[in-house]
Write a structure and sequence with these properties.
Blueprint lengths: L1 E7 L7 H19 L3 E7 L3 H11 L3 E4 L13 H9 L8 H8 L1 H10 L7 E4 L5 E3 L11 E7 L13 E4 L2 H10 L8 E5 L3 E10 L7 E3 L3 E5 L12 H5 L4 H5 E4 L7 H18 L4 E9 L4 E7 L9 H8 L4 H14 L3 H8 L3 H6 L1
Parallel strand pairs: 1-2, 1-3
Antiparallel strand pairs: 4-5, 4-8, 6-7, 6-8, 9-10, 9-11, 9-13, 11-12, 13-14
Helix pairs in contact: 1-11
Length: about 350
C-alpha cells in the first residue's frame, strides 16, 4: 500500500519541538517499509489548494497524518483532517471535529466538565477582557491558590516553564499573569488550578477487532527526581526538549506500581476510555492526568495524535505492552482503512487495502 506520511513544514531555524516532526516522519516511514508498504513524505501548508495538489500528486492509498501545527500555529491543526475528509482520502488518527475540540484546551475542558469527567478549574480572559470564572468555591468567591498558565492552543509543553506556576491571592493576579505571558502563550492563554501531586500519561491504541474501542497501554507516571522544595513538578518545555537542562535529566517515566495503586490505575484506565468515546477518537491517543494528594484523578488534556517519535511516551508505552513499534503503526493504519467507509471500498478495489488490514 502507498502511504503518504504528511507532516508539518519544518523551517531551517526550527526549534527542537518543530524538528521532531521529521523524526516522527522518519520513524513512521521506516515502520511502514518494514510492513511492506511504500511511504512517501509530504508537508502540509496553509495554502490548502497547494497542499491538496501535493497530496494528490503523491497518489496515496491512505495518509498517515502527523500534522501537529500548520505553519507553526496549533490553532490550525484541524485543517489537516478537514482537508483529507473533503478529499475522501483515508487517514490515520482523529477526524477534524475531534482534533479541533481537543486542540482547544478550553473547549475540551468544557466538554469534559459537562460530561462529568473531572478536570481542574480554570480562569480565562474572554472577549473584551471579561473573565470567564470557573475557579470558585460555589459561592462566587475566588479561591486563592496555585495556578499553572497554559496556551489555549499550543501543545508539546510550549510556553510552559518554571514561571508558569503562580500563586494567586485574587483573580486580578491571574489576569495580570496571563497578560504578562500572553506572547509566551501564543497570544491566548488560560490559568488552570495547579494540582499538587502525581502526573500520569495513558496511551490508547485502537483495537484490532473492528469495535472502534481502544486498548489502554501500560500507564506511565512522570517521576521528578531531585526537584528541590518549591520547584514545580511539571513536564515543562525544557523537560521535553532541552537535553542540557535539569528538568530533562531529572524527569523520567515509570511503569511499575505497588499493589496500593491498583484501584487508582483502574480509575485512570476507565477515565481514559471515557475520553476516547466522549471525543470520538480514532487510531491512537493519549490522556494526561494529575492525581492530587487525596488520590483524586483530574484530566489535564486529551491528545488526539500524540508524538510518535521512538523516544516519546507513546512509543515507550507500546514497548511496555510487549509490542513492536511497527505493530502499533500497522494497527493505526488498519484503523484508518477500516474507518474510511466509502473511501475504504475504493482503496480495497485498488487491491491494496485488504492486504494492509491483514498484515
Amino acid at each position: 500500500m502507498r502511504v503518504a506520511v504528511i507532516h508539518d513544514h519544518v523551517p531551517t531555524d526550527a526549534a527542537a519541538d518543530e524538528r521532531d516532526a521529521l523524526v516522527q516522519a522518519g520513524a513512521v516511514s521506516a515502520a511502514l517499509r518494514e510492513l511492506g508498504h511504500t511511504p512517501v513524505q509530504g508537508e502540509f501548508a496553509l495554502d490548502l489548494e497547494r497542499t491538496r495538489r501535493t497530496i494528490e500528486g503523491l497518489r496515496p492509498d491512505t495518509v498517515f497524518n502527523l500534522v501537529e501545527s500548520v505553519e507553526g500555529r496549533g490553532r490550525l491543526v484541524h485543517l489537516a483532517p478537514a482537508l483529507l475528509e473533503t478529499m475522501g482520502v483515508p487517514f490515520t488518527g482523529a477526524g477534524s471535529a475531534a482534533t479541533f475540540t481537543t486542540a482547544n484546551k478550553l473547549v475540551a475542558k468544557r466538554i469534559m466538565a459537562g460530561a462529568g469527567i473531572p478536570t481542574p478549574e480554570w480562569v480565562c480572559e474572554g472577549s473584551g477582557g471579561a473573565a470567564e470564572r470557573r475557579s470558585d468555591d460555589g459561592a462566587g468567591r475566588f479561591v486563592p491558590g496555585k495556578f499553572i498558565l497554559k496556551s489555549v492552543w499550543e501543545h508539546a509543553s510550549r510556553g510552559i516553564g518554571e514561571d508558569s506556576v503562580i500563586d494567586a491571592a485574587a483573580i486580578d493576579d491571574v489576569h495580570a499573569a496571563l497578560a504578562d505571558q500572553r506572547e509566551t502563550l501564543a497570544g491566548e492563554g488560560f490559568a488552570e488550578r495547579y494540582i499538587e501531586g502525581r502526573e500520569f500519561n495513558l496511551a490508547l491504541l485502537e483495537r484490532d477487532d473492528g469495535s472502534r474501542g481502544a486498548e489502554v497501554l501500560p500507564p506511565a507516571e512522570m517521576v521528578f527526581e531531585g526537584f528541590p522544595p518549591g520547584r514545580a513538578r511539571i513536564v515543562s518545555y525544557a523537560a521535553k526538549w532541552d537535553e542540557a537542562s535539569f528538568e530533562y535529566r531529572n524527569t523520567h517515566r515509570r511503569y511499575t506500581f505497588p499493589a496500593s495503586d491498583t484501584a487508582l490505575i483502574d480509575r485512570l484506565r476507565d477515565t481514559a476510555l471515557r475520553c476516547w468515546w466522549l471525543f470520538g477518537l480514532r487510531g491512537y491517543a493519549r490522556v494526561d492526568f494529575r492525581v492530587d494528594e487525596d488520590g483524586f484523578a483530574w484530566v489535564l488534556e486529551v491528545n488526539t495524535n500524540p508524538c510518535l517519535s521512538p523516544d516519546a511516551g507513546f512509543a515507550a508505552a507500546v514497548e511496555q505492552a510487549g509490542m513492536r513499534y511497527a505493530e502499533a503503526v500497522r494497527r493505526i493504519v488498519a484503523a484508518a482503512v477500516a474507518g474510511a467507509g466509502g473511501a475504504r471500498a475504493r482503496v480495497g478495489a485498488a487491491g491494496h487495502a485488504d492486504r494492509a488490514v491483514a498484515r
